[in-house]
Amino acid sequence: MTDRTGYGQFCPVAKASEVLTRRWTPLILRELISGSSGFNEIHRGVPLMSRPLLARRLRELVTHGIVERGGGGAYRLTEAGEALGPIIIAMGLWGRRWVESAADGPDWDAGVLMWDMRRRIDTGVLPPGRTVVQFDYSDAPPELRRWWLLIEDGDVDLCQSDPGFEVDLYITTSVRVMGPIWIGQRPLAPAIQRDEIRVHGRHDLARSVGRWLKLSAIAEQAARADRLDVRAGAT
Predict the structure, then answer these.
(1) 110-219 CATH
(2) Which CATH number fits domain 12-98: 1.10.10.10, 3.40.50.1980, 3.40.50.720, 3.50.50.60?
(3) 86 vs 7, which has greater pLDDT?
(4) CA-to-CA dists, residue 190 to 162, 170, 196, 204, 206, angstroms
(5) What's the rounded Cα separation, in Å, for the pair 99 and 225?
(6) Alpha-carbon distance values, 217 to 81, 120, 121, 192, 224 (Å)
């Protein structure tokens, strides 16, 4: 039997799968669709992936016309890559609904959670000037337990070491609580009311946490779909 690198079928599903279903490729696309462009920035979203393998997968995506190199070596999606956005979102919605993630399982990672969180801050809701938010995850490994979001002039930086500024708000919880909330499987407000998430510091920031801390893009899309289902059921 001849060894094949592909499926040996003309079917468009087979052809797309040859490009898109290689290990790590959907997650690289997720990072690019979410706005990451630099190599190091993309790698922070897939920290368990080796850097040589990431470089290889990016080269493959460039070869297939899904990604191109821009100025300064940045990666960006082509028209073909942009067209994959709804597909990656649909994969996330399907996974959220049909693939169960155990609350105490090994896949909940504080680093990946915080990396996604820093790009979902609505800076327009925050007061002018610098805002520093400290997160503490009681169930994370010691090296991943404490994080800081440094927000200033519309920019959000994620710090794993103390940035040296006064902290405006402290958020203490666990990854097993925040993870399901982040992907929209649980609501935020009841977790705060039950002290599963403890928020203290500046009162204005604490009161508005549900407004400036937006949930993941998958959670947002799922909520939108739920609203459409409710409207459709009411007609």
Answers:
(1) 3.30.1050.10
(2) 1.10.10.10
(3) 86
(4) 30, 18, 9, 19, 14
(5) 18
(6) 18, 8, 12, 21, 11
| Distance (Å, whole) CA 176 – CA 108 | 7
Q: Distance between CA atoms of 1 and 194, rounded to whole angstroms?
A: 61
The CATH 1.10.10.10 portion of the chain extends over 12-98
Which contacts (CB < 8 Å, 24+ apart) does range 142-145 have? 144/109, 144/110, 144/111, 145/110
What is the dihedral sign for C-alpha 88, 46, 137, 105? positive
Q: Using one digit for the tens of pLDDT, what is the confidence trace for 88-138? A: 999 999 998 888 765 555 678 999 999 999 999 999 999 999 999 999 999
DSSP string, 86-121: HHHHHHHHHHHHHS---TTSTT--HHHHHHHHGGGB
pLDDT tens column, 25-51? 999 999 999 999 999 999 999 999 999
CA distance 112 to 103: 16
Average pLDDT, the chain: 91
Q: Token match 């919880």: residue?
A: 173
Structure-block tokens of residue 158: 């994620």
How would you classify the pairing of strands 146-152 and 155-159? antiparallel
Burial of residue 88, with CB atoms counted within 10 A of its CB: 0-12 exposed, 13-18 middle, 19 or more buried: buried
Q: What is the pTM of this model?
A: 0.84
